[in-house]
Amino acid sequence: MDFHKSATALVVALIMMALGGLGTVLVVGWFFEGGRMNLIFLLSPVLLVGGIVSLIKALRPFQMRVDERGLLLKVPSQGVDSALPWQAVAGLTIEHKPGAKSSDKPFLVVWPVAGAPIRSKAPVIRRNGWSGLPVVQVDELKEPVEQLAGALQHYAGPRFTSARA
Fold this sequence. Notes:
Blueprint: E1 2-3, H1 8-33, H2 44-59, E2 63-67, E3 70-75, E4 80-85, E5 89-95, E6 107-112, E7 125-127, E8 130-137, H3 145-156, E9 160-161
Helix pairs in contact: 1-2
């Protein structure tokens, strides 16, 4: 089963760029006219730059597949690029990062066996001698969390739990 990135981040980035661009044009116009400008319009260039950064993140390639062979992960925003057979995965969880606020969205965390061929720049979660890698925030997926959990239960079997103790 393939999972895809949600288009919500792309839409938000485009709205930020449009509002930031419009505000920046107004700031430049007021600057050359010598008129008074509202302080809020000075934040428009920041909004424009933030929109550009968000657009770049939204357009990064993303690939995640869960099937009988294992887990294929290519998530450049988290620095993950690995194809893991099920033998290399000790566990999978959907949970919050340690120290996260209650409003933060949960991540899919992969708990590889020692020596598993996983490449990641993401900070690891250490618990009970295990190192887990948060690979993707579940709200960034187009498919619902229940579909991800169902695929993981079907293919990963007992390796998948809703939270790792």
